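S.,

As promised, the alpha-L-arabinofuranose run. Input:
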Amino acid sequence: MRFQRSLLSLALAACALPVWAADTGAPKLPQKASYKVGFAQAENNNPWRIAETKSMQDIAQSCGWQLVVTDAGGSAAKQVADVDSMIAQKVDLIVLPPREEKPLIPAVMKAKKAGIPVILVDRNVDQKVAKAGRDYVTFIGSDFVDQGRRAAEWLVKATNGKATIIELEGTTGSSPANDRKKGFDQVIAKNPGMKIVASQSGDFARDKGRQVAQSLLQAHPNTTAIYAHNDEMAVGAITALEAAGKKPGKDVLVVSIDGTKDALTAIAAGKMGATVQSSPFFGPIACKTAQRYAKGEAIEPWVKVEDKFYDASNAQASMADGY
Ligand code: AHR
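Predicted complex:
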C-alpha cells in the first residue's frame, strides 16, 4: 500500500513538471521537395574554407537546397549573428561549422528553440554543454585527435624518436586546435627523445603562421621539427625557415594537417615531410545526412569522415586530391 502511494506521488510529481522541461530532442526536418538551407561559414580566408563553401554550393541544386551562405570573417560573434538572421529568415535547416567550441552554443540552442534543426560540419561545439541528438542533429567531421596522433607518429619515425619541436596551433578555442594538439602531444609524451619547446597559435592562417614560426625560431634556433595544425601555417613556416637560412625538409622537418595543393606540392619538392588529410568536402555527406534525417532515420551522433595520409611516397600522384 505504502509502495503504491509512493508510486502515485512520483507520477504526480512528473505531471507537475513544467512543459519546457520535457526535452524532445533536436527539431525534426519534414520531408519536402526543396528546402531553404543556411550555411554559416566561419571565414573564407584559406583554400580549405573556400573548398568547404564551394562543396556546399556545388551540392545545393541537386539536393533541392536553396542555399543562404554567410561569411563571419573570422568572428565568432558575427557567426552567431549570422545564425540569428537565418533563424529570422525561417530557414528549414542550418549547416554550421562552429568557429569555436563554446561561443557558438547559444546559436545552436536558439535554432533548437525556434524548431530549426542544425547539422554541425567540420568543427564541433563543447560536448559538455551541447549534445548531438538532443540539441543538434549530428556532427559530420574528421577525428581531429587521430589526425594529431598520425602526424606525431610520422614525426617519431622520421626522426628516430629524437626532435626539438615547435608546434603552431590553430584558432584558440576551436575543436581542431584543441584535438589536434591533444593527439599530437599524447604521442610525443611517450617518446622521451621528442621535446615540444614552444607551442603558440597561428590562428590557422598562413601569414600568422609565418610570423609565429619566425619569432619561435629566433627563440629556439636548435629546432629540428615544426608541427603545424594546418597546411596554411606549415607553408608559412616554410617561408620563415627559408628566410632564416634553414632548409625546410632537411634542417627542419615540417608536418601538418589538411592536404591542400600547396602542401602536396611542398611535399613533392621535399620541403615538407607529410600531411594528414582533413577533407573539406562536406556538401554530399551533409545532403545525404539531411535526407536520411527527413525520412525519420536515426542519425549517429558523429558521422565520421575518413582521412588519407600524404608523404613523399604518394604526394605527387595524389595532386588531384588537393584543393
Ligand atoms: O576545421 C578545419 C580546419 O579549419 C582546417 O584544418 C583549416 O585549414 C581550417 O581553417
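The first helix runs from residue 2 to 15. DSSP finds ten helices and twelve strands in the chain.

- D.
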